[in-house]
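The records we work with from here on pair a chain with its fold. These numbers are not coordinates but entries in a learned vocabulary of local backbone shapes. To see the layout at work, look at the sequence and tokens printed below:
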Amino acid sequence: MNTLTICKKTAVLCVSLGFTAPLFAQNLRSIAQGAEKVFEAPRAARGIVQRFTFPQQTVDNIHRAVAAGQLDRQVTAEMLNVQPIAPTAPAPTTVVAAAPAATQAAAAPVQHFSTQQFRNFSLVAGRPVEKELLSVMLEENKFYAPEIDAGRAIRDQILNISVLEEEGQLALATAIQRNIKNHTLKQLLLKNLENYDIYNMALDLTDYFCLDKAFEEAAFDYALRHPHQMNLNMRRLMYNPLVDQSVKTRLRYFLEAPSIEPQEYGAFRSAIRTAHLQYQQRLSAAKHSDIIQAQVAYYENFIKRLDNFIVRNNGVQPKWNTANLKERGLFDEYETVRQYDFINQFNPILTYRKQLQIVWTSAKAPRTLSLDKTVELFEEFVQTTGRRYPLALQDALPEGAIPFEQEELLWDSLDKWRTQDEAAIKPYLNTIINKYLP
């Protein structure tokens, strides 16, 4: 069996210090017959989407904002000391059924909002370019996150090798074939793996994916070792609408040159730094813009108001069917925030949205009955009052109408079941109405 003993500590030291290391093994016999193809990187398997595509409308909106100077305001060093939005798993969501028509009608009409309510609604439901930018950048990060995680996992696997046998070599080749999207990188890794060149495999993975290494240094080193090639973050910048075309053109000059001479290293590094800094500054300008900070302040305030109400309400969520206007207003606010979640999927709002969801789901839901008990109480209501549907608490009982002692509980229970499963409860209600009413 073909084995290779590798000093893991030496490999890590070589990567971190940048020393040139000899191949870990030479003149080892070839892989078993029939397995050679695992080290080939054909271009055929191109159903894989390698690049995130920014929506054209978003690109146009960002370009207009850049041209207007909207994303070029000065930001402090403290602002820039914030890492770009990191790849994250999608925020956990709690499924909340849509409100019935009556609830929607109460939550939505902007014309009835006070000035402050309208401002709050605009913060949540509006889609300024800053919000659009932060949302699409989070999507871009999520697109590349699995590829980066896979690259890190492969590198960690390499650096943790103590003995590499044919079986382990083939497993690594399979992981590279499956998870590395870039054709050139895949070729380099497979060739080095076939030659047991573990050092250069780890080095290329480190620089291509910027693993524990500054972007500017990684991009520079990767391009010098592999002329005309870009690491992943450089590729991302070249397609990012936050970076000016003139800056990208300057980078292409070096990337497309026959070679980069040592006297040009400083200019090349400067071009990389300019693109990266422009990206960081404009992203930070959006994140710290007045509109985003106002939305953050609104969420903080709403979370506090909602939590205070729940504490005073014996740990029960606010509801729409109430004579308490403050309670109904809190319910409507929550429904509005929930309804417009789809345009607020970005940092830092995601953090506050998670906090809000915790406050809401940790509280008890208003008391309601089971489906069977709801149908049973509805039948009693129709028999007793001769009415077709209970009234909400804010609705006055018509003159001459017969009141029903459990009307609030019945309305809440019907609201719950009609929201969750209209098809299940509606036949029962129709049968009861047809049975007792003309």
Notes: Residues 129-159 form the longest helix (31 residues). Confidence is low (pLDDT under 50) at residues 1-34, 75-111. The first strand starts at residue 3 and ends at 5. DSSP finds 18 helices and two strands in the chain.
